[in-house]
Design goal:
With about 325 residues, the chain is an all-alpha fold. It has helices at about 20-50, 60-75, 80-85, 95-125, 130-135, 140-165, 180-185, 195-225, 230-260, 270-290, 295-315; strands spanning about 10-15, 90-95, 175. The chain is built from eleven helices and three strands. Helix 1 packs parallel to helix 10 (about 270-290).
């Protein structure tokens, strides 16, 4: 096969842990359970935020989008991963790989930016509470979400074709579970310094810049919290902001490690497990974090459950 066009023909083989079938069987069970819990948890957050009028606020508008992103993020890759883990067939078509890479990069970029938008929402709520609903009006909320989606998709439209069009000289074995950018770049049979440089520059805009904005926002929030006299007020702010900071730490820690050094191969197994972590564990934990630490969500769940029970009794 000619090295100039091998990246646009045939199938890819996702190696994963194919040399350790016992580990793949364990991972299949764990990932299947985690995926089902992720579907239930994030769908619950979306339904509760939409059905309970008390949660029709900017914060839960953004949380709904975060849960939708997590559902899309996992569903774009986990079914294929489970199929590969459950049998000897480890192949994925070129088209399937391209779609998976595009969705992975696009949705990941959107989530980075959405977390920054959520930090701004918390900044306005804590630092400018009297003007919160005026500043965070529906038009601005929709505009911020649209901007996050637009930038994330634009990033993927740039990086996905560049990664897939790298000459691979007939090599089709991906040493990973998924068609992920670092693994595909490592397959190239040419110097990848240029594309790694472009990936780093885009990562600064999509990953690091939002992270810096989040840290600055929380610096102002912390200063405002320390000036609050009421202990109950401080506790409420710490609950809502603590949930968001926990999610930010889980998501950004893995993303920075993976994508700020796309061509390195210091530990391939570590990279695979980190991919599983932010593709499965983070979307699984997000609804738990926001539910267990948030009295408003727990109250909304209680009202919906009790409302359904009372309506059944009337019938």
């Amino acid at each position: 096969m000619d090295g100039t066009n091998d990246s646009t023909q045939g199938n890819f083989i996702l190696l994963g842990f194919s040399d350790r079938p016992h580990l793949e069987r364990i991972l299949f069970v764990v990932i299947l359970i985690a995926y089902l819990l992720t579907l239930v948890g994030n769908t619950t957050i979306i339904l509760v935020s939409r059905l309970d009028p008390h949660l029709h606020t900017p914060m839960y508008f953004f949380l709904t989008h975060l849960s939708f992103l997590d559902l899309s993020f996992t569903t774009s890759s986990i079914p294929q991963l489970l199929y590969n883990l459950n049998g000897r067939d480890k192949t994925i078509s070129y088209t399937g790989c391209a779609i998976q890479l595009f969705l992975f990069l696009g949705l990941g970029g959107v989530e980075c930016l959405l977390l920054a938008v959520m930090a701004y929402d918390r900044f306005v709520a804590v630092c400018k509470p009297l003007h919160y609903l005026v500043i965070m009006n529906p038009r601005l909320c929709m505009g911020l979400v649209s901007l996050a989606w637009g930038c994330g998709v634009a990033n993927s439209l740039i990086m996905s074709p560049m990664t897939l069009w790298l000459p691979r000289c007939g090599y089709c074995k991906v040493d990973h579970f998924l068609c992920e950018m670092p693994a595909l770049i490592q397959m190239a049979c040419v110097n990848t310094a240029a594309i790694e440089g472009i990936a780093f520059i885009l990562a600064v805009g999509i990953v690091l810049s939002p992270l810096v904005f989040i840290l600055i926002s929380y610096g102002y929030i912390m200063r405002a919290v320390l000036s609050i006299q009421s202990s109950s007020g401080r506790h409420k702010v710490f609950n809502t902001c603590g949930s968001h900071l926990t999610v930010v730490s889980l998501f950004y820690g893995n993303i920075i490690y993976m994508y700020m050094q796309p061509g390195t191969s210091s530990s391939k197994d570590r990279g695979k497990f980190l991919t599983l972590f932010y593709n499965i564990v983070t979307p699984l934990l997000n609804p738990m974090i926001y539910t267990f630490r948030n009295k408003e969500v727990k109250g909304a769940l209680r009202r919906l459950v009790l409302g359904n029970l009372s309506s059944r009794k009337r019938l």
